[in-house]
User: Which sequence fits this backbone?
């Protein structure tokens, strides 16, 4: 039986993570979309409070819940699964926002494991854009990237920086890199 590899793609907003995850899905790989965007969409639809500009702690709780759900969804599956962020991202988000890290969030980031090698997308001003769900500016994108470069190694992960390249080249880089894992 093949052991499932849960591979995270993290980084700042607007750095091409989601485009890469979509390309991986189109190539037939199992993927999990970004929890934060899903939470924002649902909360905007109901004018809810769990939005990063209303209640950051509640937003983080819902993101964590979705990350745990996504991780469990691929339990026992064959082949790699690619995640648009992982549980350590929640710690990074709370740190970035100056919020306390609840013990259960820290525990989830420590105990819910992914492949030890994590892809990180660098800030890329040429492709960065804001939208209805991404309200961060380029400075916050950089600070988010910086937070992830500190958080993931703290939990025992090795970061592999993605090249600033078209999606097809990034996809090729990821596939070549995971074959070498």
Assistant:
């Amino acid at each position: 039986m093949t052991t499932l590899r849960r591979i995270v793609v993290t980084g700042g907003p607007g750095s091409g993570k989601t485009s890469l995850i979509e390309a991986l899905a189109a190539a037939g790989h199992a993927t999990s979309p970004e929890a934060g965007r899903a939470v924002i969409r649902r909360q905007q639809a109901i004018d809810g409070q769990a939005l990063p500009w209303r209640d950051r702690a509640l937003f983080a709780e819902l993101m964590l819940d979705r990350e745990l759900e996504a991780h469990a969804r691929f339990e026992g599956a064959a082949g790699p699964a690619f995640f648009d962020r992982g549980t350590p991202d929640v710690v990074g988000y709370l740190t970035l926002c100056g919020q306390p890290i609840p013990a259960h969030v820290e525990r989830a980031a420590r105990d819910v494991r992914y492949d030890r090698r994590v892809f990180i997308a660098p800030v890329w001003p040429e492709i960065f854009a804001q939208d209805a769900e991404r309200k961060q500016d380029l400075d916050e994108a950089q600070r988010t990237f910086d937070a992830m470069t500190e958080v993931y190694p703290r939990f025992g992960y090795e970061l592999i920086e993605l090249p600033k390249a078209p999606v097809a080249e990034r996809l090729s880089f990821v596939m070549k890199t995971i074959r070498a894992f």
The two ends are 18 Å apart (CA to CA). DSSP finds seven helices and five strands in the chain.
